[in-house]
Amino acid sequence: MKRKTTANDSMPITLPDTSFSQVLNPEDTNRADTRAFLSRNVEPFTLPGFVTPFGHALWQNRAEREFRLITQEPEPETAYAVRLEETEDFTSPERACIQVMVWRTRQPQHEGAVHGLARRFFCHFLHRWSIIITDSAQTNAAKVMWEGMIAWALRDPEHYVYACGTGRAVGLPAPGAQLDGVLRPLGRLLMGRRA
Q: Which pLDDT score, from 0 to 100, does residue 44 have?
C-alpha cells in the first residue's frame, strides 16, 4: 500500500525554479517584462540608506507592492525585483507582509548594483511591517537568502523572531548568541522590529 506524502513529511519543498525567474533570467523576456512594468502606474522610489548606482533607478508600483532596480538605457532591464503581499497575521496584532517574489540578476555587469540590496529592502520592510517567512516551498537560492536574513535578525537586538506552526517549541537564542543548529526547518517565522 502506497503511503500518501504530505507537506509535513517533506518540508521544505524545494522548487526547481519560479515563473518570474523564467521570465526575468533571459535578457529578451526580462526587457519585455521591464517595459510592461514601467508602462503601469510606477513612480520613483527612494530606499533609505541606499545610494542608487549610476545607470540604474529604483521604481515602485504601489498598487502591486512591487519594487524594481532597473537600468537606465533605451531598452531597460530589471536587475532586482521584490513584490509583497500585505496580510493580517493571526500571530501578531501588527500588519505583516510576505515577500512573494524576490529576484536578482546573476549578470556580472550588475553585481555591484544588486550586492546587498535584498538585505536593504528587508530592513526597510521590517521598519514598516512584520515579515512572515515560511519554509514550506522555496528555491535553493531563496533558502540561502532567507537563512542569511534570519541569522541577521536573530543577532540584531532591535528585532524579534517568533517561530510558529511547527507543532513543537523552537528555542531561539538571545540576540548575539551562537546560531549553530538554529537554522533548521522552522515551519514559519514572524519577524518584526521591537517598539
A: 97
